[in-house]
């Protein structure tokens, strides 16, 4: 199995380590912290799409301790208990993200930006019948992408944006920004695509959802047949390809 866990990312360590020699607080660190606090507060009270549930607070990303090079974008907060951050460590998906994405690349949660396209949970009626509500879901995705994802990209200025799933993230962003990338996820997965998201230049790197990165027999048996196909491709092809963009 290909591994790079022993390598320390060049941007690892607290942001404060890149203060100037005179000890003056780093201006970039201050900018990020200040803008993050404003954005988090705005997300908390956002009602720009029909997914907002007044009884459930939106889930916004955690500000990492290090300058960020890679952004991971999932679909939406799950209904799993204890999920207080995107891909929380207590969830199956969060544990898979660490085991099959971060650790093989020598990364930690403090050295990447982990977020969701949707900050709110799907209304359960939509989630159980996505095909029937596709138009509403795509409209909400476009709203969230332009309102929040662009703000996040502007805030942390990553070089690589990793989408975590096919139609739920990759396809929705492709449509939201009219990106000139392959329409078929199977063709696009594991390959870099320089894109312009309304003036924000970044390398788009499509990958499978963390649940699908698990080999059959690892944990529960959900999506067993899909995992049989994609997990080896993810481990042996997609992760090494992503490493070439990072190191």
Number of domains: 1
Alpha carbon gap, first and last residue: 18 Å
Architecture (CATH level 2) name: 3-Layer(aba) Sandwich
Report strand %.
Answer: 5-15%
User: Major sheet: order of its strands?
Assistant: 2-1-3-5-4
Report the order of strands and helices.
HEHEHHEHHEEH
At CATH level 3, the topology is: Uracil-DNA Glycosylase, subunit E
Mean of pLDDT = 86
Index terms:
single chain, alpha/beta, 11% strand, 5-stranded mixed sheet, disordered N terminus, Uracil-DNA Glycosylase, subunit E
Description of the molecule:
This protein is of the alpha/beta class and 247 residues long. The chain has a single domain, classed as Uracil-DNA Glycosylase, subunit E (3-Layer(aba) Sandwich). The protein is built from seven helices and five strands; from the N terminus they run H-E-H-E-H-H-E-H-H-E-E-H. The protein has a five-stranded mixed β-sheet. Helix 1 (27-44) runs antiparallel to helix 4 (134-156) and helix 4 packs across helix 5 (166-177).
């Amino acid at each position: 199995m290909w591994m790079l866990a022993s390598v320390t990312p060049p941007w690892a360590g607290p942001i404060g380590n890149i203060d100037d020699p005179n000890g003056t607080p780093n201006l970039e660190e201050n900018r990020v912290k200040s803008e993050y606090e404003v954005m988090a507060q705005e997300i908390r009270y956002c009602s720009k799409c029909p997914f907002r549930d007044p009884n459930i607070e939106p889930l916004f990303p955690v500000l990492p301790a290090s300058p960020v090079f890679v952004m991971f974008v999932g679909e939406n907060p799950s209904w799993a208990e204890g999920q207080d951050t995107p891909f929380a460590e207590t969830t199956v998906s969060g544990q898979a993200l660490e085991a099959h994405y971060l650790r093989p690349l020598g990364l930690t949660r403090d050295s990447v930006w982990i977020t969701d396209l949707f900050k709110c949970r799907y209304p359960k009626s939509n989630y159980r019948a996505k095909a029937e509500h596709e138009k509403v879901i795509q409209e909400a995705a476009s709203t969230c992408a332009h309102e929040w994802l662009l703000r996040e990209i502007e805030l942390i200025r990553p070089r690589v944006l990793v989408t975590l799933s096919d139609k739920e993230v990759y396809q929705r962003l492709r449509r939201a920004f009219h990106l000139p990338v392959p329409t078929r996820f199977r063709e696009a997965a594991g390959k870099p695509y320089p894109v312009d998201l309304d003036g924000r230049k970044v390398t788009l790197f499509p990958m499978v959802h963390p649940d699908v990165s698990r080999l059959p027999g690892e944990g529960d048996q959900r999506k067993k047949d899909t995992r049989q196909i994609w997990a080896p491709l993810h481990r042996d092809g997609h992760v090494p390809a992503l490493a070439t963009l990072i190191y």
